[in-house]
Design a protein that fits this description.
alpha/beta, UDP N-Acetylglucosamine Acyltransferase, domain 1, 2 domains, six-stranded mixed sheet, five-stranded parallel sheet, 5 helices, 15 strands, about 40% helix, elongated
């Protein structure tokens, strides 16, 4: 547990240039506080002190604005930036070195006691407001764009955007890295451009057809 907490602590400095000191991170970073709290509540959960784990996680939610069920499994190097509004469900599984921004939900899609929350791979970044729903898998090294709603599996090394989330073809769009959310690919604009091209082609063909029909009418009139 202490190894994971140390990795979470170092992740703050690696991924947030605003972090200035250890004291600041410990005292004023709700995402880090929520991660530390979860390390403790998850330990209690595994030791079958489930009521104590739930109460502590509830208190953590009150103080940090982050709701993580103590049953969720989270790898080391976990970083929640800003934190407010993050919800991580009971059967969620999160790999190592994952970054989550505010407003993210890892939600369930079933009322039965089964695996019903997402599995997130290693080195995944999930943008602000994204919703990942159901027992799907987001592959390693993938990125989920802000406000996307993911309801299907995401292959490794992918970028997914939109509602519902669509995997952006790597041979069409350049990938983005780090915090360059402003460079997220737009899967809709190229389709609109393609539709415009098709409309222009149809209009050109219609013009040619009209010209042929006009010649045919004049030919018949001469006869």
């Amino acid at each position: 547990m202490l190894t994971d907490i140390r990795a979470d602590f170092h992740a703050v400095f690696e991924r947030d240039p605003a972090a200035r000191s250890s004291l600041e991170v410990i005292a004023a970073y709700p995402g880090f506080q929520a991660a530390v709290s979860h390390r403790i509540t998850h330990y209690l959960w595994r030791k079958n002190f489930k009521f104590a784990a739930r109460v502590m996680s509830h208190l953590s939610r009150f103080f940090t604005g982050v709701e993580i069920h103590p049953g969720a499994v989270i790898g080391k190097g976990f970083f929640i930036d800003h934190g407010m509004g993050v919800v991580i469900g009971e059967t969620s599984e999160i790999g190592e070195n994952v970054t989550i921004y505010h407003g993210v939900t890892l939600g369930g899609t079933s009322f039965t006691k089964e695996k019903r929350h997402p599995t997130i791979g290693n080195n995944v970044t999930i943008g602000a407001g994204a919703k990942i729903l159901g027992p799907l898998t987001v592959g390693d090294n993938s990125k989920v764009g802000a406000n996307s709603v993911v309801i299907r599996d995401v292959p490794p090394n992918s970028t997914v955007v939109g509602i519902p989330g669509s995997v952006v073809p790597g041979d069409i769009f350049p990938s983005y890295s780090g915090l360059d959310h402003n460079k997220l690919p737009d899967p809709i604009s190229p389709l609109i451009e393609r539709v415009k091209e098709l409309e222009e082609s149809v209009l050109a063909l219609k013009g040619e057809l009209d010209a042929i029909q006009d010649k045919e009418r004049r030919y018949k009139a001469v006869k």
